[in-house]
Amino acid sequence: MAERGASTCRLLFIFMFFVFFFFFSSVMSSREEMELLQSFKASINDPLGFLSTWNSSVDFCNWYGISCTNSSHVSSIDLSGKNMSGQISPALFSLLYIQAVNLSSNGFSGEIPGTISLCSSLRYLNLSNNNLTGSIPRGSVSELAALDLSNNMISGEIPEDIGLYSRLKVLDLGGNFLVGKIPNSIANITGLEFLTLASNQLVGEIPQELGRMKSLKWIYLGYNNISGSIPMEIGKLTSLNHLDLVYNNLTGEIPSSLGNLTDLRFLFLYQNKLSGSIPSSIFGLEKLVSLDLSDNSLSGEIPELVIQLKNMEIFHLFANNFTGKIPRALASLPRLQILQLWSNKLSGNIPKNLGKQNNLTVLDLSTNNLSGEIPETLCNSGRLFKLILFSNSLEGEVPESLSHCRSLRRVRLQNNRLSGELSREFMKLPLVYFLDISDNNLTGRISDRSWDMPSLQMLNLARNGFFGDLPPSFGSSKLENLDLSGNQFSGAIPESFGNLSELMQLKLSGNMLSGDIPEELSSCKKLVSLNLSNNQLSGHIPTTFSDMPVLGELDLSQNQLSGKIPPNLGGVESLVQVNISNNHFHGSLPSTGAFLAINSSSVAGNNLCGGGTTSGLPPCRRFKTPVWWFFVSCLLVVLMLLALVTFAIVFIRRRARSELKRVENEDGLWEMQFFDSKASKSITINGVLSSTIEDNVISRGRKGILYKGKSKKEEMQFVVKEINSNSISSNFWTEFALFGKLRHPNVVNLIGLCRSQKGGYLIFEHIEGKNLSEVLRSLSWERRQKIAIGIAKALKFLHCNCSPGMVVGNMSPEKVIVDWKDEPHLRLSPPWMVCVDFKCIISSAYVAPEARETKAITEKSDIYGFGLFLIELMTGKSPTDTEFGVHGSIVEWARYCYSDCHLDMWIDPIIRAVQASNNQNQMVEIMNLALQCTATDPTARPCATHVLKTLDSVLRSSSCIFSP
Q1: Helix, strand, coil % (nearest 5) of the chain?
Q2: 517 touches 532 (CB < 8 A)
Q3: Predicted confidence (pLDDT) per residue in 28-68, tens digit
Q4: Is the alpha carbon torsion for 764, 769, 774, 777 positive or negative?
Q5: 667-697: per-residue pLDDT in tens?
Q6: Quick one: which of 23, 622, 691, 920 has the fewest CB in 10 Å?
Q7: Torsion of CA 394, 395, 396, 398, to 10 degrees
């Protein structure tokens, strides 16, 4: 009995021992987990305080971002998108029970801890969208099912032992700097479903071994430098849903084996070097939703077999060499929304019933050899918003059905053989903002019907057969470009055209317009180009044309105009191209900038005199005006009176011309000149000098100090720039005669200057706003667009509309002030100061490389600086940053990103969130323009006019689809 009791006690003791052992083991394990988490916290920066609960007073299972199992062990950490930074501590992967780690969309840097391979419990790891560097850790995690390291800066090759991750379902290494070939061992991950290696620098061929990965549903290898042909073995991946091999150097034909991918819904092979015809088996992929084979060298005909693609929504074959007719079968695809076949060699008619059974939203068949009529059924869906058919040989009338297509926004039918009249309803389409039907055979009157197109911004009816009066209105206050040239319009130019406040270009040349030029046109304050040539206009040039602030081109040639040229015409320095030839003008040419260097052909056929040596006109005969004879008579009577009068006239004329003042104060004699009448009345030398105190300093630089000032009279604000007396040239006033008269809404205007023996001051208009460098990172995509357009307009004005052209020198964001309306204003340095401060300019990161070598600033070096400016607007990165690694400079980095990376990889994170909406193509096109501007060869860079036109065209285009 005693023995039995002793045995029972021993068993009880052993039981209690194990209970306490496991209890204390559990306590120690929890304590270790807490210490590991605290170690992870200590290695990172948490500016928003998400980890404030991570302290010992709170159970770690209740810490932010932590999930625990039932046994109170850490099983999951999710801290994605929390603006954290720092390095990822190896302690994180020492947690024995951790299954999921998500640290994506932060700013973590450094290398991925090698201890990841020791974390045997890990199932899910997402470190995407950070700044991680180094290589992919070697080894494997046997149970890992999802590995996402995309959009970092990981380099090196994909390790051969990647194939040891045998249980992976998802592998995303896209958007990094990976090099080398895709390892064959990757095919050992036979259960992999999603494979993304896009936007790296991978080379070599696509491994044939991928054909063994029968579970693959998604392959994305685009934006690399992969070469060779597409392996036919991919045709064995019958579970594949998405195949994307875009932007590589793939050659050869599309393998017919792809027709075996019966589950395929998305096939993207664009921007390669593929040749041959489309295999007929492709048209058996009945589940296909989107097929994009554009920008290759494919040829042959598009077969009627396309009728099998009943689920097709997007069909892109543009920019290839396809011939033959557009298959009639396309009209039978019920879900077809976007059809783009432009820039091929297609011929024949557009299918008669196209659009009847489709769901068309975009149709672009431009730049082919199509003939016949435009089908009536194109807008049967009621959703067609983009119709692009230009540069074909289409005939007949504009279909009546298009007049009722109220979804239309962008219509381009130019350069065809269309005839007939425009219907009344066509002129009332409410959403059309771009309408170009130029270079056709259209006829009829357009004034006897009411135009009501409230969204219209661009209208081109040029080179048709329209006749009659011009309509008084087009029903839009947004009209920016109006081209009615090369028709048979008659009658007067409507005075109501002066109400087009947004108008930038007006072309009415080559018609039969008569009567006077309406003065109301001068109310178009944004008008840059006005062409009224080859008409029958009479009367005088309106004197108010002298006040148009940005008018750059004026062509009044081949008319019946008479009288004298307004003396102030051309006084606004924006006007650089004038043609008044073959009229009945008489008298002298104005002594303004636009006429001083005018070409002889631009003034021929009149009775004019004067001008510079280039005008070819005889000098004007002096001393024959009645006023002179009056002075001569006075001379005969009293010589002294004549001397006094002559002196007074000379003095008044000089003062009127230059507004030069000499004033004296306690600091001595000052010479002042103003280029703004309000400033002349409001600003005094004492006001300027009293502004130059420490409390008013805005900034300091090598070229002087900027002060803010305010006049006592009228409380006019202004900015004063102190300049060193050593910097002032002997031609001080002469140099400023051009610079001070520059007037453009996107240029900070110089309104005055003053000088004494001690030094000088420049007086600029005051712009209420901030430097672009201060606000750039907070600006939305729409606001950045407006700034880019504004600076491009300023460059075009300086390069093309000033005579001689002016250069900026330094296109830094520090030079741009953004006002409260998001309108940019470029701060310029006078020409002679650009030369004096050349050492400062060439040290700027925004100066072209050839300018540093030749020590010459040119218009092409300005264009280079604008390209850098665009890159910074797009990426948020500055040329002064030091993070471009092997690429060396922001330009080379941008070239790499443009050709090889996800858009997400290089776009500024501030605007990244909107790139998936309607801006992606805009961003890509603008980056393309930026790279043209930063071409190494200056002659390859576009001019300012081309830059503005391209930028304007891109930003007006529909952003989700390419817009010609």
Answers
A1: 30, 20, 45
A2: yes
A3: 368 888 889 999 999 999 988 999 889 888 888 989 999 99
A4: negative
A5: 778 888 887 777 878 888 888 888 888 888 8
A6: 622
A7: 30
